[in-house]
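Title: [Solved] EF-hand domain-containing protein 3D structure

Original question kept below for reference.
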Amino acid sequence: MVFDLQDPIVSDFEMEAYIRGLIPNLAQLRDMPAAFVQMYCRIAAHKFFFFCDPNRRGKACIKKVLLSNCLQELMELHQETEEEVTDTEQAENWFSLTSAQRICDMFLALDKDMNGTLSKQELKEYAEGTLTEIFIERAFDEHVRRGKGGAGNSREMDFESFLDFVLALENKDAPEGLAYLFRCLDLHGRGYLTTADIHTLFRDVHQKWIEGGNYELCIEDVRDEIWDMVKPADPLRITLADLLECKQGGTIASMLIDVRGFWAHDNRENLLQEEEEPEEE
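Solution (posted by the thread starter after getting help):
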């Protein structure tokens, strides 16, 4: 299948068909088990729509798709695995077979009752349980569709919503990922965060931090540090535009939703030093 350039819009089904047609020509995907092809195309196509269909209409502009970093990332799979690509590079490329299988395995491991969707309780085990409870709650509030019945598994996260969740967390520095996370951080849906919001959000991180045996810290100090990092246009509120402008939005989001993210920020100098130290031969 090739894109019909006379029609400026591509649907999710057309995108999946396009990717299916590419598989035989991509060196790293040629040996994909036939039983996994449909699932792979679903996962691969979803990244295009996460970045090219911000309003979640199931349609994307072909021009935007063709110019996106997603297509470039997919085409990297032309490289022969054995000689040119490391295991780390494979794992980091969303479109690699390794990554797609990782996503599936992650979802299946979280889905304890095997009903095909994730409850809040099940999602809390994501990333070894380092995400805060308030963030999980807010992710459901903002990004999980309510079912007609309003009860039961109608309020659980389906696989498509899980893919959005993972893509946002793995692309926190991208505008699309940060926009997803900001909706969760914006506790009152006002379009901005106040010092009170930061205090509420970080309180859960602080609890996990202390439970992990770390040193005591002052929530107000962290709040002030975040304000210094952002330097918002309005000194009383932080907007999504402020987070994008300061170029540290992904880091700040991590500090507010994930105790591991805060630990990485708190230990950034040590981590940077470790990266810079030459390996011993």
